[in-house]
Amino acid sequence: MSNTAINNLNVAKFGGTSVANFAAMQNCANIIKNNPNTKVVVVSASAGVTNLLVDIAHTAMSKEQIRQKLSEIDSIQQAILQALKNIDEVEPKLQQLQSSLSELALHEEINHRADLKDSLLSHGERMSSLLFSAVLNQFDVKAENFDVRNVLKTDSEFGQAVPNLEQIAIAAKQLMLPALVDSVLVTQGFVGSDQQGNTTTLGRGGSDFTAALLAEGLGAETCEIWTDVIGVYTTDPRITASARPLPELSFEEAAEMATFGAKVLHPATMEPALRQDIKVFVGSSKEPEKGGTWIVRDCVTEPSYRAITRRKEQVMVTVKTPKMMYAQGFLQKVFTIIAEHKLSVDLITTSEISVSFTLDNPANSVLKRLNQETIEELGQFCDVLVEENYDLVTVVGNNMHSAAGVSSKIFAAVADYNLRMICYGANPHNLSLLVNDSDSQDVVCALHRALFE
Ligand code: ADP
Ligand code: ASP
Ligand code: MG
């Protein structure tokens, strides 16, 4: 068959809890069966597996401790394997993955080489996709396990690899489309490969991004993100029971929410969707009948307030020089150092002699963290103050910078809390507040009451 697009193609992604065990996988199989347009399936590692792999990759441990982690991973995967009818066919392949996994885990350099870490991390998705394709076959869906590394080409920034869109589009059309005529392809989220063929990963939560990238490369019409909540909510339902699911969202709103902490979507997921106008659905694989959120270009409504997000573990850096008034290029110098250390700045405020900015700094992130070296480099030409224990709370909406009264309602709701930094006006879709981490839950709840209840 020629490698031209398939009509109405849907790419479905199932997150960690959705492929956590055999029963959860069975729900996913039913979802796939019910939509004949679903021809590409992207899976995360079974819940808990990536965390265990990250522990092995990032923490110096004794061989005994490593074996303990490996056996925890093994018992998650064995439980699924044992529920399969065609164990004999799948077991040798799983064993192969397990032995390459334990070889990497016990490698002397595992804590020091980013390429080995990514190879190790990729095993979670490689095992779950193998098992899930067997589950689909068991439920009469003809499925093949497809190695995403043949298609998902990236640079060599291990842990946070950047996809090469052109190569992905060519390879997806060449290698995946022809196979979709008579099979569903089950492939790995989160994983890619660089130009030399080394395994890379896209950053935590990256399987959503994989699904959107493949949807883009294949010219899909829709991309479904099946997870453990019945859509994108007004705020994280774990923060307040008053949060409620949203029937629709615009690409921009969803992108803002993901960027500012709504974990339900990886921050980059909306980029391919926006470029190719791919409708994205978010729903619960456990309760598909409850519907979910459709993320589209144009929504029926454009409310001033759509949702509230929170991002934890932010640091605020203030650099100050008495010479700033006269010193041209001060900001450039500061941001060159930040860029060289591959740190990404979120909020910025400036005064005549100082500039403050925030950085995402979660302890278990694979992203670069603010380190002593960066602080010392900055310290060579200005005073540097680093403040920790902040969270970023963001209200996401529309035309927020141009409608009267939008910000006053927000500030009235949080009048009782110290706002360390405010970011507003650069973008019509958000207003961000940096607050003490001990206040952030209350701040989100107060805003939710004022804006949505
Ligand atoms: P998956 O493993 O399926 O990718 P994640 O744990 O990454 O699932 O994302 C789903 C979780 O995102 C939910 O359980 C919820 O706690 C969290 N979340 C954060 N913000 C939101 C939001 N605004 N709407 C829905 N879920 C959210
Ligand atoms: N398994 C990876 C993680 O836990 C990727 C994903 O689930 O999206 O971060
Ligand atoms: Mg996720």
TrEMBL record:
<feature type="binding site">
    <location>
        <position position="238"/>
    </location>
    <ligand>
        <name>ATP</name>
    </ligand>
</feature>
<dbReference type="InterPro" id="IPR005260">
    <property type="entry name" value="Asp_kin_monofn"/>
</dbReference>
<dbReference type="GO" id="GO:0009090">
    <property type="term" value="P:homoserine biosynthetic process"/>
</dbReference>
<dbReference type="InterPro" id="IPR018042">
    <property type="entry name" value="Aspartate_kinase_CS"/>
</dbReference>
<dbReference type="InterPro" id="IPR036393">
    <property type="entry name" value="AceGlu_kinase-like_sf"/>
</dbReference>
<comment type="similarity">
    <text>Belongs to the aspartokinase family.</text>
</comment>
<dbReference type="Pfam" id="PF00696">
    <property type="entry name" value="AA_kinase"/>
</dbReference>
<feature type="binding site">
    <location>
        <begin position="227"/>
        <end position="228"/>
    </location>
    <ligand>
        <name>ATP</name>
    </ligand>
</feature>
<feature type="binding site">
    <location>
        <begin position="13"/>
        <end position="16"/>
    </location>
    <ligand>
        <name>ATP</name>
    </ligand>
</feature>
<feature type="binding site">
    <location>
        <position position="50"/>
    </location>
    <ligand>
        <name>substrate</name>
    </ligand>
</feature>
<dbReference type="InterPro" id="IPR054352">
    <property type="entry name" value="ACT_Aspartokinase"/>
</dbReference>
<keyword id="KW-0028">Amino-acid biosynthesis</keyword>
<keyword id="KW-0547">Nucleotide-binding</keyword>
<dbReference type="GO" id="GO:0009089">
    <property type="term" value="P:lysine biosynthetic process via diaminopimelate"/>
</dbReference>
<feature type="binding site">
    <location>
        <position position="125"/>
    </location>
    <ligand>
        <name>substrate</name>
    </ligand>
</feature>
<protein>
    <recommendedName>
        <fullName>Aspartokinase</fullName>
        <ecNumber>2.7.2.4</ecNumber>
    </recommendedName>
</protein>
<dbReference type="GO" id="GO:0009088">
    <property type="term" value="P:threonine biosynthetic process"/>
</dbReference>
<dbReference type="InterPro" id="IPR045865">
    <property type="entry name" value="ACT-like_dom_sf"/>
</dbReference>
<feature type="binding site">
    <location>
        <begin position="263"/>
        <end position="264"/>
    </location>
    <ligand>
        <name>ATP</name>
    </ligand>
</feature>
<keyword id="KW-0418">Kinase</keyword>
<keyword id="KW-0067">ATP-binding</keyword>
<feature type="domain" description="Aspartate/glutamate/uridylate kinase">
    <location>
        <begin position="9"/>
        <end position="283"/>
    </location>
</feature>
<dbReference type="GO" id="GO:0005524">
    <property type="term" value="F:ATP binding"/>
</dbReference>
<keyword id="KW-0808">Transferase</keyword>
<comment type="pathway">
    <text>Amino-acid biosynthesis; L-lysine biosynthesis via DAP pathway; (S)-tetrahydrodipicolinate from L-aspartate: step 1/4.</text>
</comment>
<comment type="pathway">
    <text>Amino-acid biosynthesis; L-methionine biosynthesis via de novo pathway; L-homoserine from L-aspartate: step 1/3.</text>
</comment>
<dbReference type="InterPro" id="IPR001048">
    <property type="entry name" value="Asp/Glu/Uridylate_kinase"/>
</dbReference>
<feature type="domain" description="Aspartokinase ACT">
    <location>
        <begin position="393"/>
        <end position="451"/>
    </location>
</feature>
<dbReference type="InterPro" id="IPR001341">
    <property type="entry name" value="Asp_kinase"/>
</dbReference>
<dbReference type="GO" id="GO:0004072">
    <property type="term" value="F:aspartate kinase activity"/>
</dbReference>
<dbReference type="Pfam" id="PF22468">
    <property type="entry name" value="ACT_9"/>
</dbReference>
<dbReference type="GO" id="GO:0005829">
    <property type="term" value="C:cytosol"/>
</dbReference>
<feature type="binding site">
    <location>
        <position position="233"/>
    </location>
    <ligand>
        <name>ATP</name>
    </ligand>
</feature>
<dbReference type="InterPro" id="IPR042199">
    <property type="entry name" value="AsparK_Bifunc_asparK/hSer_DH"/>
</dbReference>
